[in-house]
Amino acid sequence: MGESKMADMTLPSLFEQARKIHQMASDSSVDQETIKKGCQVLQQCEDMIGKLGLFSTNETKDDIGTANLKYLLVPYYLGELAEKVSQDDRMQILKEAQAKLKEFLSFCEAMELVPQEELEPSGQGGSNTFADKRARKIARFKRQKAAESKLLEIKERRERRGRSTRAAALSTPVEAGEEDVLDDDGEEEREAWLTTISLAICKALDLVEMLKKEEEMLSAVKERQSQVISLPLQDGGREFTQSILDERTRKAELWHRDAAARAQYTKPAQPITCATFAQDVLEGRANVSQAHEHKHQPLIFGPASLVGGNLTTERERMAAQVFQPSHRMPTMSIEEAGLREMEMMNKWQERNRKMMEEANSAWYKDSQKLGPREEDEDDDAAVERARAFDDWKDDNPRGAGNRKLTPCG
Questions:
Q1: What is d(CA 315, CA 264) in angstroms, rounded to the nearest whole number?
Q2: How confident is the model at residue 257, as a pLDDT?
Q3: What is the rounded distance in angstroms from the CA atom of residue 369 to the CA atom of residue 355?
């Protein structure tokens, strides 16, 4: 974009173009050419605002017109875009971005747009503990979320009103000049721009703190580098640093040389081919060094199994272990498992048969010994009880005890 073309554009057009570039840079990564162009457009906007004299330090937010509120965001947009510029001198970029953001915050403070809790730490000079910082950050985060929700609500309300207006325009003819009256809502537009400024204030405060920390880190790194470089040669500064590097290089080379020498005489441990023994090793019940006899030979999935050769050399053994299954290998075949299960079943049936025979024989013997005597004793006792009851009924006929209660008794 040429200087002549920007000079011919109006302030609303320049601001709208700069706002779109800022939104693109915030939502996604853009190239440096676009960011620099946005900075140029915003600087042109700032120059035109200064020439027109739109704002004054004697005014408050109530004295500024709705159409001019959006131009308060020009320093904020310029500070955010300036921070994204890639340059060798990062310290200069940080200082410029902080200057623009602080200019935006100071002007918003003069316009009574900055919340009171953000002004208390700078005004009192104390209460700068970690708890106070944390409380301010939480309150700032809540204000930021509330502003974002409010902007989303205003956007949805405008979209609904636009759809209803278009529907009404299709059903009812609108006269010339009446469309602007229908779409004009000054209070809602003012509320939207004030909410946007409030959101920008929260983001600017966080960004200023972040840039300040980055500037402190860069200053510390540069100071340390300058101290190392400024060491005089006669004091042995550079020679001392070079000697340390040489010593570290020598130790690293010696360690690698020893490792290569040990690798020639070191053989890897034999692989564990039994799943049960492997589980015991993992759970700590056995050691890898313990001898483990395992007759079941595992399947080999390596190249040796393809050619049908034997593992005669160390190279073939290592090549055969390349393609191994990820699951546990079986410890016995299906036939062996079936035979073992049949053996267990036969033992269980034999044990049950013996128990049944013992139970039946004992019950039979006991019943033969105790059965007749108990039956005879039960029969004699029943006969005696029946006779006693008959004698009692003879002595006490039915209704004999109630004769004194009857009138004729």
A1: 14
A2: 75
A3: 21
